[in-house]
Please model this.
Amino acid sequence: MINMSVTIAGVTLKNPVMTASGTFGSGQEYSEFVDLNRLGAVVTKGVANVPWSGNPTPRIAETYGGMLNAIGLQNPGMEVFCQRDIPFLKQYDTKIIVNVCGKTTEDYCEVVERLSEEPVDLLEINISCPNVKEGGIAFGQDPKAVEAITKEIKKRAKQPVIMKLSPNVTDITAMAKAAQAGGADALSLINTLTGMKIDVNRRCFSLANKTGGLSGPAVKPIAVRMVYQVANAVSIPVIGMGGITNTEDALEFLLAGATAVSVGTANFFYPTATVEIAEGIEQYLRENHFEDIRQIIGAVQ
Model:
């Protein structure tokens, strides 16, 4: 019997495969394709303190090896989420990780406090949001801001806190160390890379927002490198993501030091990817005579 379970901040997942925020809703629309009971965790779409309408359209563009999105974290707000989405997910034998977004530190703290009474397992804090009080620079692009917001959230959170790091920085390890110094229980990375696409026939931007977040297979080598760097710079668990499409991709992140992995863009074109990756990892362990998934985490030489 192969042990596929991993533990993040005291929460044990049956396997290391989860969904990436914003690519899976809160599981409802995917539940007809995917048995959610077979996932280590479902990571929800970003939840804010009030409803967000998101950015103007068009806000998605396909690119070579991936996609750009400028959805703008559209969501119905925390009250609808708590009344509708949590009860849905509680039907399944999987862990619930709520992705939290905000425009000010107070916004984040309001959501975290509201969720403290809810039956969710972990909180993932999206610090790639623009900090409106600092003129729009993302919280996650300044180590001091990362540490400060992590500390404020940790004061109020009842659940363990995962800080989701932005790759749009010079030194990812500085951000990781700042989050750990602020008390983060785990880290997840990478979020999307800032990109742009221009329609040459119409001579206009493909996205109304001009720029968007690049995700998909094109970003995977950058993501693997950053996960490796961070896993070797901090002592808390790392959740790896960025362009994971198949088992081999997921194994790269585990070998680089990730305790778990999130599958994102692949869900759009290959809805059963998560479950097939979980099965594939187990098969890899069996074929290579490993009895426990922890034997391969960080095992790259």
Summary: The chain is about 30% helix and 20% strand. The chain has a mean pLDDT of 96. Helices lie at 78-89, 105-115, 143-156, 172-181, 220-231, 247-256, 266-269, 273-287. The chain has one domain: 6-54+72-194+214-295.
